[in-house]
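Bit of a strange request maybe. I'm writing a small parser for structure token strings and I need a real example to test against, not something I typed by hand. Could someone generate the tokens for this chain?
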Amino acid sequence: MVLPPFPSAHELKESLKRTSLVALRDFFDEQAAVAGMATRLAAERTPPTSSTRLAEFAFQAREARSVRDRSMADSRFHFEIAVLSQSQRLLTSEQRLQSELSPFLWCDAICPPSPQQAFTQHLALVMAIEQQRPEEAQRLAVEHVRGNMKLIIDGKLALHRTAAPHELESAQ
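Reply from user aminoacidic:
Good idea to test on real output. This should exercise your parser:
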């Protein structure tokens, strides 16, 4: 799923058509592991008296007007969690995974984005981190990733249902 930084809807749809369900599952397994542990560590390592920018980034993602801006704001939110984990490896992994995931997640042609649903989930993550509840934070992060996986897999399946017969033959 390697694409240019801001691929067109057509490029995203074609890439998703070529990506197997097994590859998508594997991607989301990695994403759940990275996001879950980064969120858990952020909740453990963020002092209760410190102020984070997580809520600010959550609001920016919800209020963004363009797909590109929403994608970037959503990624910044997840990068900030990885920064708060104080793990360079998790941050690097999160950056790589978000660069692959975010364009698909916010593409209207693949799945109808729900900024309000993402915002609600992001605020729950913010609260779990800032209130130092690591188990809850990790659980919420994994649920968030699984929800994203469902959206993208549903989008992939819808693309195949609407594909022309000759496209279906070449995808098998």
